[in-house]
Amino acid sequence: MESVAIIGGGITGLAAAHRLIELSAAAERPIRVALFEAGSRLGGVLHTERINDCLVELGSDSFITNKPGAIELCRRLGLEDRLISTDPKYRQALVLRKGKPVAVPEGFMLMAPAKIWPILSSPIFSPIGKLRLGLESWIPRRASEDDESVAAFVRRRLGNEALDRLVQPLVAGIYTSDPEKLSLRATLPRFIEMEQRHGSLTRAARRGLSDSGPSNNTNGTRESGARYGLFVALRDGMSELVDALVDRIRGSGEVHLDAPVASVLCSSSPDEGYSLSFAAKPGSSTHTTSFSAVILALPADRAANLIWPLDSTLAGSLSEIQYASSAIVCTGHSLGDVAHPLNGSGLVIPAAEHRRILSVSFASRKFAGRAPDGEVVLRTFMGGALQPEILDHTDEQLIEIVKTELGQILGVRGEPRFAVVSRHNRAMPQYHVGHLDRLRHIEQRASEHSRLALAGNAYTGVGIPDCVTSGEKAADRIFNSLACRQTVERC
């Protein structure tokens, strides 16, 4: 029987294992599918807990629906009726300006202004900044096709104020990155298309606004900042998706926890493709197991460490992908202890404000059922590429910093009902300028290993749908490779 090892038990590895089981059943061709996770828990950044009658997401809390990977997976798992949308009453973003939260101008979608009056009336920009934004329609298209940083693109089209006061914190909320290094082509290519097709982000955004139909918000206003109407979550939290996947995988495959793989080498057996060596546990010796194929559903640097003896060139390219770390401090509060009305889905904070937090998600405003009446759950983000040093603090120190910042910014008083720190060390890949060229080199080299596949958020997208799609594509590639080998052997 053919056998496939999936290394990594995050959402990417789970999606890959599930897809292999689906393909095997559809083709009526048995495959041994074994998933190995170094830690004691599956799901990676998807981790839901119940704390004081509150539903608390310690990692990703939702996914976007205009990328099909995650929502299609939910349908196949029978979870479609469990999906909930963001609360229409709170589909706007706030941004900190001179220490005060103010609304992102209506119709300003990440870095495309669709309406003039909300910008002119916004306190976010100075008169000069507003004038510079108004000139965007007269800025010529960029002739060069070379990769450009997000910061360079925004500065060129919208000006410095738009970058520093609005776009930088909005983009940081997605990628926890330095926009001066972040590749526009690898992260937000639709804005390149908007510029090239319409000659102006403003004209492109207005056309999109006129084509979008009536507002879906109950208060009659359109969304601002992120496209909140496109995001969904699961009613009982994102761990519902993990649990459903694990149930399916355990039914037809293997799941091994606390099973760190030490290396991946070519197997000495002609019938098996790769030999996996596992780190020795206390009281035991190192052991190896062979598999026909392997999927590395790991961060790029960890994948590089595993395959360095197998292919140092591929490992070297993988190790060039850099990562940022972050922490989420989840706190519960009585609404009576919060002076701010929390009239949005969350607050982003420009680096120019010199605060010690990156953003605050109003989690129980964003999705219903996250907190009892009269209470609120806040998720405060810290660290990232621009503030890595803050993660040197202890959990207790991070909580104290968050309490101080929330008090000064949102008027949060007293002690929180609960406070939990979730650290995500080296979890966010940094798609720096030149990322797509680096990715092409990785794909070309990886193609030489027909039964070894790479998957994860390091390559073509950082969101949950991207990870699901990456895992499923890796599974498709391995399944097809094994099928081709069987065909050749029969001939």
Largest sheet data: 7 strands, mixed
Unreliably modeled segments:
209-223
From the helix content, strand content and strand pairing, which structural class follows?
A: alpha/beta
What is the gyration radius calculated from CA atoms? 24 Å
Compute the separation of the termini in Å.
18 Å
The coarse silhouette is globular
> What does the average pLDDT come to?
91
Name the CATH homologous superfamily of the largest domain.
FAD/NAD(P)-binding domain
Query: Helical residue percent?
Result: 25-40%
Strand content: 15-25%
Query: How many beta-strand elements?
Result: 20
CATH topology of the largest domain: FAD/NAD(P)-binding domain
Give me the number of helical elements. Answer: 16
Number of domains: 3
CATH architecture of the largest domain: 3-Layer(bba) Sandwich
Which strand order does the major sheet show?
A: 8-7-16-17-18-15-19
Summarize the structure.
36% of the residues lie in helices and 22% in strands. The protein is an alpha/beta fold and 491 residues long. It has a seven-stranded mixed sheet.
Layout of secondary structure:
Layout: E1 2-7, H1 11-27, E2 31-36, E3 48-51, E4 54-57, E5 63-64, H2 68-76, E6 83-85, E7 93-97, E8 100-103, H3 117-120, H4 127-134, H5 150-157, H6 160-175, H7 184-187, H8 189-198, H9 201-211, E9 231-234, H10 239-252, E10 254-256, E11 261-266, E12 274-278, E13 287-291, E14 293-297, H11 300-307, H12 312-319, E15 322-334, E16 346-348, E17 359-362, H13 363-366, E18 375-383, H14 395-410, E19 418-430, H15 435-446, E20 452-455, H16 464-490
Parallel strand pairs: 1-2, 1-14, 2-10, 7-16, 14-20
Antiparallel strand pairs: 3-4, 5-9, 6-9, 7-8, 11-12, 12-13, 15-18, 15-19, 16-17, 17-18
